[in-house]
Amino acid sequence: MTANTEDQQHLSADVLVVGFGKGGKTAARALGGAGKTVVLVEESARMYGGTCPNVGCVPSKGMVHHSRKRRPQDDPQRFYEQSVDKVQDVREFMRQGNYDGLTGVESVTVVTGKAVFTDPHTVAVSKADGGRLTVTAETVLVNTGSRPVVPDTPGLRASRFLLTSTELLESRHLPQRLAIIGGGYLGLEFAAIYQRFGSRVTMLARGERFLPRADADVAEAVRTILGGEGVTIVTGAQVREVRDGQDDTTVVYDAGGTEHTLTVDAVLPATGRVPATDGLGLESAGVRTAKDGAIEVDEHLRTSQPHIFALGDVNGGPKFTYISLDDSRIVLDQLLGEGQRTTADRGAVPNTVFMTPPLATVGLTEQEARAAGHRIKVARENVEDILAMPRAYAVEETRGLMKFVIDADTDLILGAALLSVDAQELINTVTLAIRHRITATELRNTIYTHPSSTEAFNEAPRTIIHEDPPTGQH
User: Fold this and answer.
1) Strands, DSSP E only, in 278-336?
2) Is the previous residue joined to 357 through a cis bond, with omega within 30 degrees of 0?
3) Which residue in 287, 281, 316, 285 sits closest to 302, CA to CA?
4) Three-state SS for 239?
5) Whole-angstrom distance, CA of residue 306 vs CA of residue 308
6) CA 244 to CA 237: how far, in whole Å?
7) pTM assigned to the model
8) Which sequence positions are flagged as catalytic?
9) What are phi and psi of 67, to 5 degrees?
10) Could you read off the pLDDT of 424-441 as tens digits, one per residue?
11) pLDDT in tens, 9-23
């Protein structure tokens, strides 16, 4: 229902969705299809569909794809410009498709503007066209995502050469020299992408240990691959200052007890993301947040206000688009189903770093498994030695390894790290095995198509390099 006053419009709906992310749009479409009236408010028209298809995983993976296609004879700058244009064409196609797919549902209304809560059931919207609007709903879903963190390093935020991941992906200028501050997964992806496009990339990782969340052998394999492609990785780097010159900027950092300088054309902070809750007026809605701005939720994703749910990055959970999708399933089960599904149902959640070859992981590392009290056996094999995987040789990508952490008493797979061609696909099979308690023996003895990467599972999990002794033996 719509009501007009002299200065603004008012909408009432069954459900209000703030943010056009994966979880929000999926829930909005399902609720609209179930006959609910839904109003979805998105701050930016260029963000229909959320972070992933617009400024995150889809354009970045598009850049991964194009960077692999550059030939030695291709002019780096021209090839890069063409790649950016192609990726942005795909982004626009997906943005428009997301918008059309939702507005095609009769009971769903999409409003473009900034939403601010005025009470637990109402938001005031400053529309992109300059108008004003209020929306009131019985149920509210918040799906505003997250934003990149830019450290408060002297000179960094004011630097003319600072680029966020979004800005770097959309810039048509290929930096000749790129500094990446941070040694996490985002930094790895961008290092691999831009080194292949022709930039000279230096990663400044704060920790003394490279990839501390991975087992040491996996981290070393990743470092060897990136180093072989020309990426310079500095661990234990404490960035002290960024000093702009006329045509470039200098990053000042400490490492190994001494001060170093690095002159570059662009600086990318890859130091994480925080929930995008600033300016939402959550205090007016009575919604509690954590210190980092994340909306506090229970296992059903209800906030401190039971009629308000938070989905995706904004609730402080794992920052993956597929988690936002799963969040929508939990919320829809609350609103349309039996209300039994919870965040505890997820079990193993896979993750992939799209370097070349990709690094995909799921479950426990070797360190984590022992810390959890498991007696384990470890299977590991270099891809170049997996004779059951001829696809790696066929596509000329034999770098990397496959590692499995297996419970020595039950033969259940506890975790895996796959650094190999097609790892982003392979990890989903391992994830299913973990969730459904399929043993390593069953995974090894399954029939896979040939030649495929999956048939590596016929061999790699049987290559045991270590087994913990039985309890009480040393």
Assistant:
1) 308-310
2) yes
3) 287
4) strand
5) 6
6) 20
7) 0.91
8) 450
9) -60, -30
10) 999 999 999 999 999 999
11) 999 999 999 999 999
